[in-house]
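Thread: quick sanity check before group meeting

JM: Hey all, I'm pulling together slides for Thursday and realized we never actually wrote out the predicted structure for the chain we discussed last week. Dropping the sequence here so it's in one place. If anyone has concerns about the input, flag it before I start.
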Amino acid sequence: MSARTRPDTSPGAPHRQWNEILQEIRVMQTGIQILAAFLISLPFQSRFRELSFAEHVTYLVLLIFSFLLILALLLPVLVHRHFFGQRLKPTTVFLGHRVVRFVGVGAGLLMAGCVGFVIQIMAGFLPAMIFGGSLMILAIFVLVFVPRMIPPRRNMPKEFDY
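JM (edit): ok, ran it. Output follows.
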């Protein structure tokens, strides 16, 4: 095994990994909060009352889902705070890694759901199911399967080594 394929087991590795996770959380949280703010503002629009029961249900599902994603993003930070000073950084990193993976896929589904919601209002239920459902499948493919298709560093051409 070459040096470039060994996992980082140095004493500072958990701290570096935690900082990377925090940066990923910041990126995702911003996008999800913008979508949540958009959803929160909708009931204050004059035409919101004109939506059908099914459209209201879709709206509520998206709103609650965005809340749950934001809540999930706060979890690693609060667990870190709980374990602060107890030398349990690897535990926090493990949890943060799992949450970031879950929320990443959830954010893709939320975005697809919001597009489907707009299509539902503009064109009706069937086009929303077709396009929104297709976007959800695409989001799952891109966010779950594409990362697994990328070759590990040890299989990359030498010119990509840094």
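AS: nice. The two ends are 17 Å apart (CA to CA). The mean pLDDT is 88.
JM: adding both to the slides.
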